[in-house]
Known about the structure:
The longest helix has 18 residues, at 2-19. The protein folds into two domains: 23-133, Glycosidases (TIM Barrel), CATH 3.20.20.80; 137-186, no CATH class. The protein has a three-stranded parallel beta sheet with strand order 3-4-5. Helix 2 links the parallel strand 3 (54-58) and strand 4. The protein is of the alpha/beta class. The protein is built from five helices and five strands, in the order H-E-E-E-H-E-H-H-E-H. It has helices at residues 2-19, 75-83, 95-98, 108-122, 174-185; strands at 36-38, 41-43, 54-58, 88-93, 127-132.
Amino acid sequence: MRRVTAVLLAAALGLTLAGTAGGPATADDPAVPRLHREGRHLVDQYGRIVVVHGLNLVWKRAPYAPPDTAAGFTTADADWLARYGFNGTRLGVLWAGVTPNAPGVADPAYFQKWDRVVDLLADRGIWMQFDQHQDMWNETYGGEGVPAWAAKRPFPFSLLPWIPLPFPEGYWTPEVSTVFDNFWAN
């Protein structure tokens, strides 16, 4: 009986190890399902609710995308996320990075920087959610997100200097409320 038990345990262990011996998951791998929404949940292809264990990746200063350095996001960082079970990220894409100089003139270099990060994450089976990120509109107000060309201070507020406030207190000022109202009314 002990011999049969030992053989069955060895076979089970062998099958388990064989099932996990493949390389890392890839974006095209069916083991990395495309998620979709059902009601208030993200679900996989079988309708199972998915809990995303993720990290926030937002670069809030120009050039608004991570460099391929230790201060940014590297292959080693992506490997670390996968090794420790992270399966999702929130990538902060800022309008100020997309069109930094003029309306409708996109910066291809900005997208190339994010393409590198997307490839690193996708190659490891890590889901991504893109966030059109901004905090308190623009650097003028102690935040980031909107390019300078779209962040002119409105009259009559522009007659006085802006008094810096800590985040998120600037949101409740008449001036920041006005710039948001002007944006949505345009």
